[in-house]
Amino acid sequence: MEIGENCIVMENAVVRGTRRHHARVGDNVVVGPRAHLVGCLVGDNAFLATGATVFNGARIGDGAEVRVNGTVHLRTRLPAEAVVPIGWVAVGEPAEVLPPGEHGRIWALQEPLDFPGTVFGVERGPARTMMPELAGRYAAALGAHREDIELTPE
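Above: the chain's sequence. Below: its structure in token form.
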């Protein structure tokens, strides 16, 4: 994980990378409270507001904004200077930015991005068959960090 120069990561925000998806936050970026960024690349001068969520493999262009509770989905490319409005969802490459009420359209773009396969290496299927393997893999991966220590600024 890399955090650029002059960045602000506010309280209760999470920025983390994975083995498959490195996390990088560019210079002059604000990551708001309760934002969650995992395995994504954020360009310089971006603004990720309170509750913003950016998934694995996503790329946020320079100067882009993800406003309060906005989502940039898996493997999505949000171009420079783009805006995800409050509560909206960006999905696809190039990103389509859609209101949350457009679930059918969001799912049509999101399903082929293969969240369980991309993030967990598990074939998509009904929850009753997919979740035992997915949860087991995830628990094992997180358990590997049981002895990690929190780093605090000096």
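The first strand starts at residue 2 and ends at 3.
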